[in-house]
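Form 7-S
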Amino acid sequence: MLQTPTPLFRHTLSIRHPPTGRLLARHLETEFAGRPFLAELARLSGRSEASVAWLLQQDIVIPAGLLCAALTFQDAAEAVHDER
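Output:
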């Protein structure tokens, strides 16, 4: 089970509503162009890749666990980028 990172709370407070699956997918595709992120989101969220792929195609609010996984993935990617 994931521990909820502090950025999740900051992100949630900074917007009026959590992102939909399509909005999150668009953001991830823009930020991580050419890098596979689906498998890592599935691993971090504890969901199957098929489930994550389906959720990222929907215009529904994504589950908190998937948002947490996306934020964790983004933080890890930024940490790796900062080390370079």
